[in-house]
Request: fold
Amino acid sequence: MLPSENRLRRRQDFATAVKRGRRAGRPLLVVHLNRDGAAVARTDRNSDSHPHVAEGLPSARAGFVVSKAVGPAVVRNLVKRRLRHLVRERLSRFPAGSLIVVRALPPAGTASYLDLEHDLDAALRRLLRAEPADAVPTGAGR
Reply:
């Protein structure tokens, strides 16, 4: 299980990660990563409504989307448990304040734990090695 401070719960946080973040798709899942979630998260929080957030930069938070297309409730819950376990082991790779949304695709319902792990690692490698768009120098090589 993910620690409370690492859980993504609010609809607005999911929307921020999906709409403003980078995306990496694989056959079993899609991962959305918003590295500047810290700035958004700090602007609308107060210590009364979020007691698990320490002062300063919040830790990376992850959320999961597993629709009914993946399978019946038993299968969806199994996929969510597997993904939570895999992401928990990898949270230290993310910058503080990152928002991560992992969306399971229908084939994830029949995939093994190792297949989910392989696709998650491949998506995270792609997202974490990519530089933000504004960090790329423009006009280089002219």
Remarks:
- The chain has one domain: 4-45+57-130.
- The longest strand covers residues 29-34.
- Helices lie at 11-20, 37-43, 73-90, 113-129.
